[in-house]
Amino acid sequence: MNYRKKDERLGESRMMNCGYMATIIAYRGRKDIDVKFEDGTIREHREYRSFTAGEISNKIKSNKARDMGTYQHHLQKRRKKPKEIVKDHKGNEYESITEMCREYGISQQVYSHRTKKLGWAMEKALETPVRRKGRIRKEEPMVDKRKKAVTDHLGNSFPSYVEMARAYNIPELTLFNRLTRGWDIKRALTQPIKGSTKDFKGKVFQNYYEMAKHHNSEVPYQTYKMRLNNGWNKKDALLKPLQERHYISHEEAAEFIKAHNDIKREDIAKMLNISETTMWNIIAKYNLQKKRA
């Protein structure tokens, strides 16, 4: 705190906007002062700039009284509002716009956007179904999940879209979203899913892990991809078990290597089914343990 300013401002008097003269009686900083009015009222913890602007008042307003006044005003305004009666294009009466929109299966926000911003007529705004994602072609109708009989691009009939999706091994939600975005039925049923994979029988799975679980395969995904890159067919890459490795301790490997000094290190690594780098690491760790012991 600047003590020079404190000495200068302490005792300073100024006329406030409320019509009373105020004097600084305590100055702890420019954001913490106490002032005393000529009628004896003391206001604590005020700012000095409020003092210079004359914004400090000697009257303390009651928040409770102010809030009660606002609440009473709100009640009076609410009582004066008449009950709203809304009619649709067919002449049916509703208590509110929300109830009318709920009857037609759309939200009030959609209805207001269509009538006020887009300038649609009431009949079009209420009767047009709400699209969810993407654009819908004019010639493509909305997907009706409640429709019972559906037909694919080959003319095969299914009791519902769910059954048709299952027949083509794609998720039901994926089919609904594709048709809602305006895809034709052939593309919606036959285009592979992003990230999906097929097994050697042609069956589609959402990911590799579901395919491996279906075939009871323990082959990791990286091993499966490496096998395919090396020219393996899908069946062998998925179902052929991994090569079993016989792991030995560092001590046993080091003793074996020392006992066969006449054999090349490459041949020893092949005999132990390990790489040369692993072999040299085993020797180094074993020697280090001996030194520490």
Topology at a glance:
Blueprint: H1 3-9, E1 13-15, E2 21-29, E3 32-37, E4 42-46, H2 48-53, H3 63-80, E5 86-87, E6 93-94, H4 97-104, H5 108-117, H6 122-127, E7 150-151, E8 157-158, H7 161-167, H8 172-180, H9 185-190, E9 197-198, E10 204-205, H10 208-214, H11 221-229, H12 234-239, H13 250-259, H14 265-272, H15 276-292
Antiparallel strand pairs: 1-2, 2-3, 3-4, 5-6, 7-8, 9-10
How far is the first residue's CA from the last residue's CA?
A: 67 Å
Arithmetic mean pLDDT = 77
- The residue ranges in which pLDDT falls below 50 over 5 or more consecutive positions are 62-68, 134-147
Reported for the largest beta sheet, the result is: 4 strands, antiparallel
- Please tell me how large the radius of gyration is: 41 Å
Count of distinct strands: 10
Percentage of helical residues? 40-55%
The global form is flat
Total number of distinct structural domains: 4
Strand content: 5-15%
SSE string, helices as H and strands as E: HEEEEHHEEHHHEEHHHEEHHHHHH
Counted by DSSP, the helix tally is: 15
Description:
The chain contains 15 helices and 10 strands. With 293 residues, the protein is of the alpha+beta class. The strands form 4 sheets. The chain has a 4-stranded antiparallel sheet with strand order 1-2-3-4. A two-stranded antiparallel sheet has the order 5-6. A two-stranded antiparallel sheet has the order 7-8. Strand 5 and strand 6 form a beta hairpin. The longest helix is centred in the N-terminal third of the chain and has 18 residues, at 63-80. The protein is flat. The relative contact order is 0.04.
